[in-house]
Amino acid sequence: MTFQYHPEIAKLGAAHLVTPDLDKSLWFFHEIIGLEITARTENKVYLRAAMEHEHHSLVLEAGDRARLDHVSWRVRRPEDLEGFHTILTENGNEVLVEAPNREDGYGESLRLQMPSGHKLRLYYDVDKPGVAEADRSVLLNQRYKSWNRGIGVRRIDHVNLWTTHDTEPQHEWLTQNLGFKLREYIQTPAGRLGGWLSVTPLVHDMGLMKAGPLETTPARMHHLAFWLDNAADVLRAADIVVEAGIKPDMGPGKHGVSQAFFLYVRDPGSGHRVEIFSNGYLIFDPDWEPVEWGAEDAALALTMWGPTDYVPHTDDNIMNTTTEA
Amino acid sequence: MTFQYHPEIAKLGAAHLVTPDLDKSLWFFHEIIGLEITARTENKVYLRAAMEHEHHSLVLEAGDRARLDHVSWRVRRPEDLEGFHTILTENGNEVLVEAPNREDGYGESLRLQMPSGHKLRLYYDVDKPGVAEADRSVLLNQRYKSWNRGIGVRRIDHVNLWTTHDTEPQHEWLTQNLGFKLREYIQTPAGRLGGWLSVTPLVHDMGLMKAGPLETTPARMHHLAFWLDNAADVLRAADIVVEAGIKPDMGPGKHGVSQAFFLYVRDPGSGHRVEIFSNGYLIFDPDWEPVEWGAEDAALALTMWGPTDYVPHTDDNIMNTTTEA
Amino acid sequence: MTFQYHPEIAKLGAAHLVTPDLDKSLWFFHEIIGLEITARTENKVYLRAAMEHEHHSLVLEAGDRARLDHVSWRVRRPEDLEGFHTILTENGNEVLVEAPNREDGYGESLRLQMPSGHKLRLYYDVDKPGVAEADRSVLLNQRYKSWNRGIGVRRIDHVNLWTTHDTEPQHEWLTQNLGFKLREYIQTPAGRLGGWLSVTPLVHDMGLMKAGPLETTPARMHHLAFWLDNAADVLRAADIVVEAGIKPDMGPGKHGVSQAFFLYVRDPGSGHRVEIFSNGYLIFDPDWEPVEWGAEDAALALTMWGPTDYVPHTDDNIMNTTTEA
Amino acid sequence: MTFQYHPEIAKLGAAHLVTPDLDKSLWFFHEIIGLEITARTENKVYLRAAMEHEHHSLVLEAGDRARLDHVSWRVRRPEDLEGFHTILTENGNEVLVEAPNREDGYGESLRLQMPSGHKLRLYYDVDKPGVAEADRSVLLNQRYKSWNRGIGVRRIDHVNLWTTHDTEPQHEWLTQNLGFKLREYIQTPAGRLGGWLSVTPLVHDMGLMKAGPLETTPARMHHLAFWLDNAADVLRAADIVVEAGIKPDMGPGKHGVSQAFFLYVRDPGSGHRVEIFSNGYLIFDPDWEPVEWGAEDAALALTMWGPTDYVPHTDDNIMNTTTEA
């Protein structure tokens, strides 16, 4: 029996962030967030979390200003790179094939761009470095010891992007080109406020929201999220952040959408916002109907309980809600 | 482009349990575990958890003795029923096509049997009943109010089966016929103690363990598991169970395999064991290498910390470790 | 050896609240907060929490408008009633001796008033009613089953009062007349914003804060607090409140002062604010130096992390920050 | 008005433990338990927890074999040292007055011995050293940063002693000489299995249990307990202990007596048992009736849920249940 082939994305791989203060950003992500370092070059550091096997889930690169360089995604099968190349170019997207250089642990990869301007990368082949004896978990199904340092996040979870464009066509582009499924969205008379999409049973591997009316930069990253197993761990994270002299950005609280228990914190080296989160729910139903929240439900969708506003930042180097992509 | 077609199972659907004391079992699963009732017939009750959309994730049926009747699984696409029918019969398995009768909310389904004797059922079409206003969650992505009653489990998670046969051929049968992936296993010189397999990013949708040496019944159910969002919720569950006059069977504790934080409790109406659990981890890597725990790691694999033995039961109606399938 | 005698308060007993909608207030405190009912009259209901032995820790009384009638305190020894009577009258306070009537379970008691106008009551003798078999905990050191209903608070914790008067003389009055110890306070150039005082190792059995500049009513209750064992229990409380159709007032979050993890919710029948809280710390040092937070520390003192503002209420029956005493 | 004077103990101060492997014990208490070091001499290390103001709550002293040297207690008022001296000598106890030497931060203190042979010490005057800037909490009511290292216990909680003597006379001795109040006890036909006593609202500042029938050493320490704010923190502690290569001794689980959520772990340098615990309840009632658990309640009293046995230790240096006093 033969069948129509669909290439698939298996998972979010990594976010590549540029920071104007690499030392401070590294302190934040390594000592406070608790990511482990797997590789370094002159101007880049590669990090991953305790449960992660791949080369990295975060790249920090020194640069003039804070921005999201790109988000990488792992495809399900080696042949899916070619499969996506075909679909993307047939749909009129420009795709660049990048040869493996192994500095970042990736084999061949595809570089592409969303209509919103956000840059993505697809890969299959990736190095999975081991862990030094002293840091290795006693558990055979885990890389680093639990609670090795700082907040001790378990894995990358999702990325949330902001655009000045209408979001609905972006969501459709993600569905038609990359196989994302829309899971929840907020629809108002003024347009779609945002959508949460995934390729896995997570409610979102990617969120894509409408930027505020005063925003002029077309593509931004709202936040990068890391997972903890328990809401209680997020509360501990809030203590650690404040003890480190950092004022949390928003939270803790619970979103209606995705039911995530969240804490938002900003890297003091770059202003990049990080979500420390837990709970939420999983979607196993193959015929899941996207949950529509109307204008009258939007407040509940964004905040079931907890704070509804971000703490204002006055530092000129830190834009108030997002960092540029 | 064409491609080799593989039917897929999307998720665990439900466990169908027979109980000699339907009233007491219903009290346990409804009032204590906190499942909601969606339908009743003269000798059966259908239940589901707060996050579940399908008609039921548990059937309780009155009968002479406690046993697992069968476990049902939802396939990913409607055509996967035919796809599995083809593969299963080509591989020499007997498959019975059952017409929809809608009492249980299912459309057409397939009945089959594992070599171990455990009975399975595959379906795609299923009713998704609504919820009465008074019980409905304010959240649009959830059916019933959170914490509506008792422990308030969120969803079914997995089933764990015991066999007197060698487990390795059973694991292979599940892989070759139903597309399960082996995620972790314990391998000793005396054979494979057990394996944890899944069709989703959960570490296991099904566990299949070797029965103890004195066991003569070939096929048993070790436990049926329900999910809670936090380890703290499992501790609250332990309080509720004891306040209800039930002595927990084992736990709380943490398995090395799957990193599940567990509490085992037995339905006083039937002796069926239920696992209340949280934490654990998800597998998104498409090339996950099954984790092998050797004989020297077996103790850690079974219990990272917490109790290692079940509380002995003296009630003649309750077998000590498992109920028959 | 003889010694200067000091009468002592042993503990907070109860808050007596008047509500314009007794049915709705009773629903809130019984079904949602989870207090148990010990007695009822035509216009009053007496309630207590699972861990409490005394007749009640809350009185709800039907009345024209929401107000705090009085707060009662248990003295350490029977003779302390006379001891306090002597001290209070020597210090020029009016004290009324109330004969036991047993409707409220109290023996003889003293009625008095703070200079701020808040009314207090002192008692020693109190009924300790039993619990019906069905509701009784299996634990011999606890009255009702844990998690019997709703949020399931464990015990009353403290009361927080607001005054338009300078707070410092009020704190001194509490210290000199009733033996309260000042544990923490916020001191600004404009005066003392508030103080937290206790007669037990809790950081506060009573908080006494300066009302906002627009406030004209001299004596108000800011909130009444109930204890839960874990921060995770407070998060569950937030779910329950929202599922019951109530918008939380503020939180969850963590105060710097007292390190309390808090959630504020208002009784929809009266507007009385309730704090659901956990964590915090205990003071065993007999020579504890009151912790002074200056103007520059006030933000941290009030909120270590979490929200800093109350949700505005538009209901005319509900004053925005406090209910009158 | 004059009054009969009673000296009072305000709180547990510290446990002084002797260890045959000071380096390993220090690693355990500093890096894993998370106590901070305040002073060192050639053969002693002084430690305290994040919330503690006094010079130390634990002394580790190098010695030939593991033993509890003594437990120190802070009296409520300076004159209580003389008050206790009078009572103790009048009751026929030998009391040694020790001059301050300030190595251990204590002023004048009293040395005495229980009839069971356990050694106690009373003090009032004590140094309260500050904290280096880098380690200091942002909170003015706390010494060290929260979650500074390891498990990060918050404060010492209680000590649990074992005796081969009848326990009832020991409990009476504690009540008559030192003002302890009996809070809960287990009474069987064979005698009193144990009692939990306190001078504070904690259910026990000291537990005193009957040693097993094979025990010949008259006085032992069963465990020393440290407090955490949440049950979830105790679960994290279990992870940390196992990741450090230590097998927990018992737990997690919940005692019926005191409702403590517990995890027992043994210092690998000495075999001294430490309880990491949370939850429990407070007693504010001045007329608390001691809770009696009969023989038929003893199992529930010891374990409401969780494990009931200690993990056997085979190391010759580690006695199986207790270390000698």
SSE topology sketch:
4 copies of one chain form a homotetramer.
Chain A: E1 2-4, E2 9-19, H1 22-32, E3 36-40, E4 44-48, E5 58-62, E6 67-75, H2 80-90, E7 96-98, E8 109-113, E9 119-123, E10 155-163, H3 167-178, E11 181-188, E12 191-198, E13 206-210, E14 219-227, H4 231-243, E15 250-254, E16 260-266, E17 273-279, E18 291-293, H5 298-302, E19 323-324
Parallel strand pairs in A: 2-5, 6-9, 10-13, 11-18, 14-17
Antiparallel strand pairs in A: 2-6, 3-4, 4-5, 7-8, 8-9, 10-14, 11-12, 12-13, 14-19, 15-16, 16-17
Main beta sheet of chain A: strand number and arrangement?
10 strands, mixed
- The CATH architecture category of the largest domain in chain A equals Roll
Mean pLDDT of chain A: 93
- Assembly annotation: homotetramer
Query: Mind telling me the C-alpha Rg of chain A?
Result: 19 Å
Biggest chain pair interface: A-B, 50 and 50 residues
How many extended strands of chain A? 19
Distance between the termini of chain A: 44 Å
Figure out the total of helices of chain A.
Answer: 5
